Amino acid sequence: MKRWVELTKSKVFFLYVGSFLLVFFIPSVVLGGMMYQNAVINLQAEIESSNLHNLNQVKEMIDRQMKGLEQTAVKISYDHRLTPFFLRTNDYYAMEAVQELGKYKANTLIAEEVLLYYRDGDMIYTSSGTYSLDVLTREIYRLDDKGKEDLLDLVKESDQKAVRPAETVFVNRTETNRMLTYAYPIPANGTAAYGTVLFQVKEQTLTSLIENLLGDFNGSVFILDSKNQLMANRSKGVRIQPEEITALLDRDRSEPIRNIMIGDQRFSMIEVTSEQTSWSMMMMMPTDQFLGRVIEKKTFIFWLFICLLIAGLAIILAFSLMHYRPIRRLRQVLGSFEPNGRIGGSASRSNELKWISDTLETAMEDHRDLVHQIKVQRPYVRDQFVHRLLKGDYRSGEELDQILNSLQMPLTGGYFFVLLVSMHHCPTLPAAKRIQLQQYLEVGQEQGTIRLGVEMMPNKVFAVIVQFKAEGELKQDQREIAMNMIQAISDRFGFSPSIALGRVYEQIQHMNRSYVEASAAQEYELKSSAGSCLIFEDIVHWQEDSTWYPAEEQMRFIQGLKQGDRQVALDSLQSMMRGISQKERSLLLLKCMCSDIINTVYKTVSVMKVGDFYKSIQEALMFVTLAEFDEKLKRLVEEICEAVEQNRENKNKGLRDQVLAYIHEQFQSYDLSLEKVAEHFGLSVSFLSRFIKDQTGSTFTHYTGMLRLEEIKKELKTTNSPIKDIIVRNGYVGVSNFIEKFRRAEGMTPSEYRKLNSM
Length: 759
What we know:
Blueprint: H1 2-8, H2 11-78, H3 84-87, H4 91-107, E1 111-118, E2 123-126, E3 129-132, H5 133-140, E4 141-142, H6 145-157, E5 162-171, E6 175-186, E7 195-202, H7 203-210, E8 219-224, E9 230-236, H8 242-248, E10 257-262, E11 265-273, E12 280-286, H9 295-333, H10 352-391, H11 397-406, E13 415-422, H12 431-442, E14 443-446, E15 449-456, E16 461-468, H13 474-493, E17 499-501, H14 511-522, E18 533-535, H15 536-543, H16 551-563, H17 566-581, H18 587-608, H19 614-621, H20 626-666, H21 674-681, H22 685-696, H23 700-718, H24 723-729, H25 735-746, H26 750-757
Parallel strand pairs: 17-18
Antiparallel strand pairs: 1-2, 1-7, 2-3, 4-5, 5-6, 6-7, 8-9, 8-12, 10-11, 11-12, 13-16, 13-17, 14-15, 15-16
Helix pairs in contact: 2-9, 9-10, 10-22, 14-16, 16-17, 16-18, 16-20, 17-20, 18-19, 18-20, 19-20
């Protein structure tokens, strides 16, 4: 008993019962609707479709018969035995003409009589004899005065084929028939008719074609001519007056099947029109007779529904108890777990699902946030790692191994080198394609190689660290990897970049050297074309001179100065000075070599435009010993690298100020995105994401979210605007999602925050 009392207080149990009732009710309604659809509507549609098909068959049959009459009229007009001259030669020929007309009549299936009249005489020829018009209309086919007058006009005056609707005709004074008259002028398609062929067709002949259309149903069938005159009709069980048919003809008749109202009764109307004769055939049946076919099913359906209802209720109760049992058990397990005191306690436990949901949501909140932060930060951490690796910040192999393991980058073993992919030959790509290109270069694994890349702004190059397993000569493998990348970019993105390659090293911490070497090789892009591969070792070989200091060290020295890399520049300077001092050279050659180093420094800083070093260079020229020269050059290198670093920071500061100003202007716009900001400043998405993180310590999403949150808090304090309007006005579309985010950040809802700060 206690259990049932507990069930009556549970919203979840009643929710289950209601849900199962709904699940049961919907199929029941659908099933009932389907049965009704199948029993009534589909039955009606099936009968209408069948009748439309039958009506089309009758139309085609009548068309064939009328076409036959037309062809017979044409044959008569060209028969030399039936010409006016031949008929009036003597009585014998007239008798032959009567026999000939009898043959034509026998060849038609629906004509009761065939008549031939030439307008320059008074005689009319039939299959039964020759008569004057007066005798014919008075004795043989007697009509009323109006019918006689219309027939004579048709015979004597009409130049077009025509049909007279069915009318009562007294035949030979002994029988009465309703006849249709089909008139065809002679000659065929002539402009000045001199004769007429008439066909008499019994109305019963046409109605016999349509009498079986209704089958077991009540209704009426009508045949109308091109002028909408009633030519024939057949009715069963209903009687529709001619004037009611006439009223229907003024309505829209574009649909072959339509529903109409005649009086207070609804009819289903089917109509087809012959393109050959322009006759219309209509069938009308009372719609309510279709319901009579399913009345006998109603009792069965009723009792079936009652049985299903009883069985369904029993199943619903059993399923509700079965599904509620785990909820009740879970509630008992979580009964004492209310982390941080943020759950509603016993006051909210009448709705077990909400209570359980809130409890689990609170317990998993920090976990979800942590996982999200890891996913968001991973690309940034990877880019930072590559940047620091290229700058030579990692000297310890153990430190590198720890970082690689944390980033899940299997860059151990094999050989490494840096390649620079130049974007100078890159055409303007759509935003989606540009992002795909960046993603391809930033990280990838194919054909036994692993690559990590980062965009180097503003040089418009991608620096890519490549790890590979040597299968032959290192230089040949290196060149093949570069050419494969050029081909892949060409196939996917439609352009061929030039690629510069540094030397291959066995240890990944030497990638700063390979990067400097690749940068030196990239200087020779000026001499290359799109799709070329520039290898540092080849360039060194071009410039090698045994009497001078090593050319490769000079190239490293220049790149170290340009990039502000003190370590690389000083190491290269030391190698050049060692090359000068270790060999016996004349005093003049030594001075020339020292002057060349000074000249190299001067040209480099002149191109870089990072400051005025004229005095420092002049001072470096005032030396007595090589040791003094070396010491002065080291101070000059330190000064230049510091200026390069300061210049880079100044540029970053200017860009930072512009980007943050733009974000502060646009953060209330709901469509503000990292892609939109990147497009506005002409930057890549990955670079901008990394740049914002470097400059603000926050991701773009977190930074804009904080701006919006602070603005919303300000408006909650200082305005009386509805909370929903404030949230939407500050760039949020999902109000409920923001309220939950606000609660997690502030420990209360926006409405509670407004109340607290309005006191």
